[in-house]
What does this fold into?
Amino acid sequence: MSNEQKPAGKLAGKLAGKAAAITGGNQGIGKAIALEFAAQGANIFLMDRKAGTLPAVAAEVEALGVEAGHCELDVTQPDGVEAAMEAVEERFGRIDILVNCAGVFQSHRFLEYPLERWKLLMDVNVTGTFLCCQSALRRMVPRRRGKVINLSSIAGRMGAPYRAAYYASKHAVIGLTRSVAMEMAEHGINVNAICPGMVDTDMFDTVLETVGPHVDAGDTEKLRAEMLKRVPLGRMIEKEEIAKLALYLASADSDGMTGQALVLSGGMVLA
Ligand SMILES: NC(=O)c1ccc[n+]([C@@H]2O[C@H](COP(=O)([O-])OP(=O)(O)OC[C@H]3O[C@@H](n4cnc5c(N)ncnc54)[C@H](O)[C@@H]3O)[C@@H](O)[C@H]2O)c1
It folds into this structure.
């Protein structure tokens, strides 16, 4: 194996030896972030409600020359969140980086929006982020360092029909991020959010499938093409591009940045 082909391992890379906890790390953007961080030398702890494939993702992470742990976690459960953060500390001795990626999407007409669905989205997207931030930050504060990255969305920077709960939840994630950042600044901890545009994941499939019937778009491919017309760069954002932005926010390169909600959307939303 040539040097270029060798994984960065623990001693090299922008996150060498750091311990990163990633919720929603089983797939999609969370998994891409896990692999990017691992390639930069971070040890990774994956947490997800879907536990079935976590061992396989952990094995992919370890193949990059770092350590990986994982646990089943529903981010809406305070005791479970606490136990998961404890498990990260037990495994790696500390938490340097928290990425809140766990999230859900649903679409309904507002006048018929089921209260239970509203509560579910708020619970996972907002309360889950709150609980994970609180539990990890209680561990970061005494060490006077840490990086927290919350996944908001362009949905946190605009409005759209049939998506009230998701859009409200992603606005809330930005408000939470900004407020917590102001409180954590004196402890030397950075708290920022990422606002992705359209990224091809299971969640985006759910967007196409559940918004489609409301807008009479025909099939999901037609709706995708319609939605792409609203992106000045005319393309989806790759999950690996989001992972590179997360790497910036997790590394010392962004030590001077906090309370931000960075948009990566192909120009769809101007920050
Ligand atoms: N895909 C997009 O276009 C897009 C755009 C903007 C923002 N985002 C945000 O990025 C994040 C990741 O989304 P994705 O596209 O990778 O979606 P995804 O559906 O592929 O992954 C989401 C992950 O969260 C997990 N999860 C859901 N509920 C959970 C819970 N209660 N506890 C723990 N884990 C739970 C799922 O099991 C899944 O692994 C989400 O917060 C999403 O809102 C996605």
Notes: The chain has a mean pLDDT of 95. The chain has eight helices and seven strands.
